[in-house]
Amino acid sequence: MKPNLGFIGLGFMGTPMVSRLLSAGYNVWVWNRTKQKLLEPLRHGAFEAHSINELVEKANIVMLCLTDSKAVGEIVFGSEGISASATSGQLVVDFSSIDPQSTISYSNRLKYETGINWIDAPVSGGIQGAANGTLAIMAGGLIEDIDLIRPIVKNLSQQFTRIGDVGAGQVAKLCNQIIVGSNIVAIAECIRFAEKSEVVDAFKLPEALKGGWADSQPFQTLGPRFAARSTQPTVGYANTMLKDLNTAIKLGKENDANLPMAKLAAKTLKKLDALGLGESDIGEIMTLFN
């Protein structure tokens, strides 16, 4: 029998993830601070939990997809949070991208207070990957817990890897963000460089470089959008990437790992935030190159 699932956090990523779980035949109870965001999952067959307590009572596995460490801490340990009503035998799966040290701290505290285990399972692949079930998910946790959720997560991902104990998933996601964040800046730079040459059609670069070493999924997705100065539909926010890069830089400093490319990418995205474009689509980065 399939386990009952609870899902908290119905943003750009959480909503399509819930839709895929519903399509796979799971019963999913949902809760979100902004009630308007419940409408689409409810239309697809999700059940509304009127409180976190109700969601925890209904679910065997509680899934989170939240904005940052603070939000996760409040949802789990707030006065009416998960820890207030959870019981041993349940499992928390956190798809959020948060600080690894917070993840380890939260996991230890939840285990001590309730006996519940924690899996950190941040995702990569963007909104399209969430909708298509082609996310890459890097997980930290006990082997038996990871194996337990594999049949569920296969509906969300094309790649699901246990990369270590709790916290390892978050470190792996930061590795991902260092690559992607640096790539975003490089893509914007190369598009503008091609435009300014006045002999290269920047729109043709993704086609011309496809399959070569400069190619990547971000390049194929963002290259045409950057060339067209297109920011709709939203594929990701500048400040979301900046948050993760800042986390990576902080951890790198603590671990004596120099991150020059991450620092440069963060500096560039910080300029976007200063222009009031941090909560806009990442395509606004072209504003800095115009």
Q: What is the strand and helix layout of this fold?
A:
Elements: E1 5-8, H1 14-23, E2 28-31, H2 39-43, E3 47-48, H3 52-58, E4 61-64, H4 69-77, E5 91-94, H5 100-114, E6 117-120, E7 123-124, H6 126-132, E8 135-140, H7 143-153, E9 157-164, H8 168-197, H9 205-209, H10 217-228, H11 238-254, H12 260-274
Parallel strand pairs: 1-2, 1-4, 2-3, 4-5, 5-6, 8-9
Antiparallel strand pairs: 7-8
Total count of helical runs of at least 4 residues: 12
Radius of gyration: 20 Å
Overall, the morphology is globular
How would you name the CATH homologous superfamily of the largest domain?
Answer: NAD(P)-binding Rossmann-like Domain
Beta-strand share of residues: 5-15%
CA distance, first residue to last residue? 56 Å
Quick one: CATH class of the largest domain? Alpha Beta
Q: Identify the strand order in the major beta sheet.
A: 3-2-1-4-5-6
CATH architecture of the largest domain: 3-Layer(aba) Sandwich
Low-confidence stretches: none
Mean pLDDT: 97
CATH topology value of the largest domain:
Rossmann fold
* Quantity of strands, as a count: 9
Would you write up a description of this structure?
With 290 residues, this protein is an alpha/beta fold. It has helices at residues 14-23, 39-43, 52-58, 69-77, 100-114, 126-132, 143-153, 168-197, 205-209, 217-228, 238-254, 260-274, and strands at 5-8, 28-31, 47-48, 61-64, 91-94, 117-120, 123-124, 135-140, 157-164. It has a six-stranded parallel β-sheet, with helices on both faces. Strands 7-8-9 form a three-stranded mixed β-sheet. Strand 5 (91-94), helix 5 (100-114) and strand 6 form a beta-alpha-beta unit. Helix 11 packs antiparallel against helix 12.
